[in-house]
Design goal:
Blueprint: H1 2-9, H2 11-22, H3 26-46, E1 54-55, E2 62-69, E3 72-76, H4 82-95, E4 99-103, H5 110-121, E5 129-131, H6 136-145, E6 149-155, H7 158-168, E7 174-178, E8 184-187, H8 193-205, E9 217-221, H9 222-238, H10 257-272, E10 276-279, E11 294-297, H11 304-307, E12 314-320, H12 323-331, E13 335-336, E14 339-342, H13 346-355, E15 362-363, E16 378-379, E17 382-383, H14 391-394, E18 396-403
Parallel strand pairs: 3-4, 3-6, 4-5, 6-7, 8-9, 8-14, 9-12, 11-12, 14-15
Antiparallel strand pairs: 1-2, 2-18, 7-17, 10-11, 13-16
The chain binds nicotinamide-adenine-dinucleotide and manganese (II) ion (MN).
Nicotinamide-adenine-dinucleotide (NAD) binds near residues 80, 141, 163 and 179.
Length: about 400
Amino acid sequence: MRLSQLIRDNADELAKLESRNVGKPIRDSRDEVALAANCFEYYAGATNKIGGQTIPGAAPGVLMTFREPVGVCGIIVPWNFPIAITAWKSSPALAMGNTVVLKPAEQTPMTALRLAELALEAGMPEGVFTVLTGPGSVAGEAILTHPLVRKLAFTGSTEIGRRVMELGARDIKRVSLELGGKSANLIFDDCDFDRAVASAVSSSLGNAGQDCCARSRILVQRSIHDRFVQALTDAFEKVIVGDPLADATEMGPLVTRSHRERVMSYIDAGRAEGATLAAGGKAREGAGTYLDPTVFVDVKPEMKIAREEIFGPVVAVMPFDSEEDGVRMANDSIYGLSGSIWTRDGSRALRVARAFETGNISINSGSSVHLEAPFGGVKQSGIGRELGLAALDAYTEWKTVYIDVS
Ligand code: NAD
Ligand code: MN
């Protein structure tokens, strides 16, 4: 609880540090620092509310359970939301009595290091929340293979997630994974058109598209497809791209030059496979790793840009006909992390929400993460859930105690 207060007291400094860390707009950094403070507050509040049960078993005697810490938790986080993900994994682990060894991404260690200082200032004993910096192949694998680490919580790419499971298997470490996504934004012709367009922009360009929940596949019912593409393209061209520390900035640069090259290689692949650029497609000249918000149309479901996570400000727009077609296209992915449905028909919204193969879905909204609710993916988007009270399952073991009273 005290650490949560210290995060709030230092919010301005932390937000600036996060913007310098990632290159993300300062307004987003402020929100993410606030989420970090809220996480520590929420899970601090759980410490005296989560317990075991007394169970009416068949055997005579008393049957009860305790929820106990797992032990040392090795937590590995990516560069896109450094302080937010650090907080949402570490705070439930610490609240349930575990210790944490956290490795930030090598590109973005700054806010995690500052958080560790604040933890000491809050009175957390040394060694309870440790930050270990370094490349994944060295510092990361040291965590994955250390015999004293009993639990691995990883957020990052599906490729490295597989490695985490493989190495964790040696000691049967508990593993939870938050991995990649290629989420669908399913837009029906009876939607609130203007709100759907505005949300299609923010839910794909937020954090410059470097967001596991980015709605990078925009599926639009055919009768409004052309009108929607026109409005989306206009809106993409109006996005204020620039200095992360300027208050007006809506989209900053990409995290590194090499990441921008990777995103550009997807734009080249889209062109080569026959999709049409409706907006953007260019890396900006000069300082900073900026990339114009990019819209592809004439996209076929089998193209690379429709299947793989690009992790940049690039969307693929595809038309669909019936509700059934829309759902089939939305589910045609190895991933299942997030998604949105836009319609004014409440029955359809709930029908489609149930049919979506995903861990999180929003109706008439582009939101994904709610501190109070479980967050995570199905299929190759991950294993387990973070956030909400569901996260506590990943950071506790059940102990069953039976007392013979005869
Ligand atoms: P990444 O997998 O390359 O790296 C993630 C972390 O793993 C980094 O700290 C990295 O240093 C470490 N790492 C790399 N190789 C390792 C190894 N061999 N052993 C141990 N650790 C290793 O991911 P990234 O490029 O930092 O982030 C982008 C990815 O993260 C995207 O795929 C995105 O979808 C995913 N992501 C998922 C969520 C989610 O909640 N599902 C949230 C944010 C990001
Ligand atoms: Mn990476």
